[in-house]
Amino acid sequence: MVDADTGTPETTAPGNGAPVEISIEDLRAQLAAAQERAKQSHDLYLRSLAEMENVRKRAQRDVEAANRYGLERFAQELLPVKEGLDLAVENAPKADRDSLAAGQHATQQLLSKAFERLGIVELDPVGEPFDPTQHEAMMVQPSASVEPDSVLTVVQRGYSLNGRLLRPARVIVAKALE
User: Fold this and answer.
1) Nearest to 118 by CA among 83, 163, 73, 84
2) Nearest CA-CA partner of 153 in 164, 143, 165, 167
3) Lower Cβ count inside 10 Å, N or C end of the chain?
4) CATH class of 120-178
């Protein structure tokens, strides 16, 4: 409302309802302050939005780099194994049976150590209870020597990587004799 005598806007005072006069200059100052706060808030919003976009792009680059170079450690661990196999193939024509067997054993140990360093664990569940989350039953066979529903024979070993199953062990499961 505008006071008819003075031409200045009126408001009511909080609590008692009595009119309070506010000058146009006061209103202009309040409007300018509110516009400045709105501008600062908008600038802060835009900076925050830009920072979030930078974080997203940085995270995406990190994921891409991890995917691209994540196999580097794996490859470095397997290089000695490949070199051992290459050496075995080169020397096979002139090697005797015992030295070939020793070379194969050494190469197998290199591979086992590489797997260990990479967190790859071999699953060999002979005698353990059958677990469908870790084992793949190839067949069921009666057995008196092993508890029913336990692994009688491992057809193909399974592997896990840092606790996550890479490949289930393929097994023959024991059942009770009839």
Assistant:
1) 73
2) 143
3) C
4) mainly beta
Q: Mapped to the 3 state alphabet, what secondary structure does 74-123 carry?
A: HHHHHHHHHHHHHHHHHHHHHCCHHHHHHHHHHHHHHHHHHHHHHCEEEE
Query: 14: which 2 tokens?
Result: 């909080």
State how far the Cα of 115 lies from the Cα of 124, in Å rounded to an integer.
Answer: 15
**What is the DSSP pairing of strand 10-12 with strand 135-142?**
unpaired
21-78 residue pLDDT tens: 889 999 999 999 999 999 999 999 999 999 999 999 999 999 988 877 778 888 888 8
Taking the complete model, does pTM exceed 0.90, yes or no?
A: no
Instruction: Give backbone dihedrals phi and psi of 112, rounded to 5 degrees, phi first.
Output: -60, -40
